[in-house]
Amino acid sequence: MASVEEIMRKVHHLEIKARRLSRESFSGEYHASFKGQGLDFEDFREYQHGDEIRFIDWNVTARMNAPFIRTFREERELNVLIAVDISGSSVFGSQHLSKRELAAEIAAVLAFSAKHNGDKVGLLLFTSEPVLFLPPQKGTKHTLRIIREILATTPAKRDTSIGTACDFINRTLKRKSLVFMISDFIDHDFHKKLGTLAQKHETIAIRVFDPVEEHLPNVGKINLTDPETGWQTMVNTSNNNVRQAFEKLTKRRLEALQKTLRKYQIDSIDAPTDQDYLPDLHKLFKTRSSRHA
């Protein structure tokens, strides 16, 4: 476990980077991509030709002896929840970043972008159970706590249940919200519950992964340990059949995930630990912006 000083250095580094990116690169894109979640009543005015008949207020109309309609303004403020998988597999990283560190960086960019847009941001950390929930709030102090908790929290359990996280979000968030689900999505039996989440809340999936998890390197015999269960086995990575079987299983898992994302119209990006995720995040924001135009 990293020391408090090391964690605070990482938080400070992410704060500087995320502030710059959210201000210079994502501020306008975020605003255009994520619209307000509804309309707030503003006032009454007399009906004019072309107005929506469904907005006529019949009580006011009866009192004034003339048709009056309700007028509204867009509710700009969003409720944003960043849900981060901190199960045992999140600490893995064959490159310079672990999946947990990459998740923290992406979450920092999203949190500061939301903050600059005037939105409330919350956090859910989960494994096979909810570990920490911070209700959506505003403020720099709250945003920095989100980053710190992602990096520093040590869960009691190390296995994963995305379905349990989805159930918790649906029970806890009463108002329709924007949910960023950040995980490696190495789990099973969660697809239907992810779909239920997407039907209730606007959901975006961000898959963080390490390249070794998709393409087993040819490095001879190695001991592999499941970081969530502790199960160990010896694998001969020089065996071509072993590598092909591994990639086949991975491909099948990813195809099932993509099928679910398409079925429930969940936008997503892949964020590998060995590449820059920013181009894909830009592309996601621009695609959503053009869709809402």
Automatic annotation (TrEMBL):
The record's section on Gene3D superfamilies has:
von Willebrand factor, type A domain
Q: What is this protein called?
A: DUF58 domain-containing protein
Q: Which residues form the DUF58 domain?
A: 43-252
Lineage: superkingdom? Bacteria
Known InterPro entries for this protein?
Answer: DUF58, vWFA_dom_sf
Give one Pfam family: DUF58
Name the CDD domains on file: vWFA
